[in-house]
Amino acid sequence: MTDPRRLIPRTDAVLADLRLAEALARLGRGRVKAAVGDAQRRVRQGVITPAQVVESALDELTGSGPRRVVNATGVLLHTNLGRAPLSRTAIEAVRAAAGTTDVELDLATGRRGRRGRAAMAALARAVPGAGDVHVVNNNAAALVLAATALAQGREIVVSRGELVEIGDGFRLPDLIVSTGARLREVGTTNRTSVADYAEAIGPDTGFVLKVHPSNYRIEGFAATPDVGELAGLGVPLVADAGSGLLRPDPALPDEPDAATWLAAGADLVTASGDKLLGGPQCGLLLGSAGLIDRLRRHPLARALRVDKLTLAALEATIEGPPPPTTLALHAEPVELLARARTLAVRLADKGLAAEAVASVARVGGGGAPCVELPSAAVALDESLAAVLRLGEPPVLGRVERGRLLLDLRAVAPSDDQVLFDAVVAVCG
C-alpha cells in the first residue's frame, strides 16, 4: 500500500493554490511558505492528510497579526482591546502617511522642517491657551520627559493622595524616581492643602506635580487643592490630566481638560491621545513656550518621539469629524435600545434566545471611574461567551447574572450587521 505521506503536494504547487492568494498578498511569500512547510511536516507526522495542507496553512496564517475584535463589553476605552478605535479619516491619513511623506521637510524651502508640524499646529489650534505643544509616545513618556528635563537631581512636590498605580502594576512614583528626580510627598492620602505644598517648596524644587486620579476617587473626609490654587507658588506647575480631553465635555463634567487647566494657571499639562481624545497612542504636552522648548530640545526627546503614522492619525483625529469614542460617549440610550431590539428580533428569527435589555456602560481606560453611561445590550446565554470570543471576528461581551450581554454603546451602528453575522455563524 502506498504511504499517503508520499502524496504530499510540492511547495510550489501549494503556493499556487488560489485559496492562499490573499494571504500571499497580505503577509508575503516567506511567511506563507513557512506555514506551508509546517503543514507538510504535520502530514509526515501523520497529524493531517495531504489534502489538508492548504487548510492547515490557512488556519495558521489566520492568527497572524492583530485581529479585528467587536467590542461589545460596554467599556468604551478597553485597554486590552487597544483603547480608542481610530476614525475613518484617521485610518485614511495613516494609509497616506505609510508611504514617503514630508514629515520633517519644508516643501516650500526644500529644507528640514519641524517634525510633524501639521499635527502640532492642529493640536495648538485645538487648545489656543497653550503657548506651544509637543507630542511623545504616551502619557508616561510625557511625564518622564518633564521630570528629566525639569527636575533631574531635584525635587518634585506631589500630594500623597496622587501617587497612583494604574494597570499591570505600573506605579507613578516608580516612574518619576527612575528619572533621577526625588519625590517630596506632602499632605496625607485623603487631605492635602495649599500650605502643605508651599511649605515643601525650596531651592531644590524642580516643579509641583498635580495628578488627576483618573481611575479611582476618594470620598468622605477628603480635600485637595485644584490647579488654580496651586498656580503662583513660584515654581512650574505640571498637571497630569491623563484622560485626553482637550476641552470641556458636558457628558463628563468632572473630568479635567487641558484648556481649563491651562487657563487656571498650569504651566504644563500632559494627557493621553488614545483615550478621550479618541486618537492614536501618544502623550500630549501643552504649556508655556519656554517649557515646551526645553522639553523638545532635551536629548531624551529623541528617544520618545512618535512616528509619522501617529502624527498623521493625531492630526486627522483633531481636525476631522468626531472619532468613534466621542460618538459612543454621546450615543442616545433610546437609539441604543432600538438597535438592541432590532438585533434581538433578528436573532430570535434564527432560533436564538435573545432579548434586548437596558445596561450600564463605562468609559474605561483609566478615565471617569464613577461615571455610568446608560446603555442597551442584547442578552444571550452565557455559554456563548467563549465561542463568540473564538469566532471570526471575535466578539467580546460581558457576563452578568448568568447572561452574556452584548452592549452596543461601543459598537458602531455600521457594525450591527457584523455583530449579527458573528453570532449567527458561531451558533450555526
UniProtKB/TrEMBL annotation:
SUPFAM superfamilies named in the record: PLP-dependent transferases
Subcellular location: Cytoplasm
Catalysed conversion reaction: L-seryl-tRNA(Sec) + selenophosphate + H(+) = L-selenocysteinyl-tRNA(Sec) + phosphate
Signal sequence segment: none
N6-(pyridoxal phosphate)lysine carried by residues: K275
Main subcellular location: cytoplasm
A Gene Ontology molecular function term of the record: L-seryl-tRNA(Sec) selenium transferase activity
Entry superkingdom: Bacteria
Role: Converts seryl-tRNA(Sec) to selenocysteinyl-tRNA(Sec) required for selenoprotein biosynthesis.
Protein name (database record): L-seryl-tRNA(Sec) selenium transferase
Organism the protein comes from: Nonomuraea mangrovi
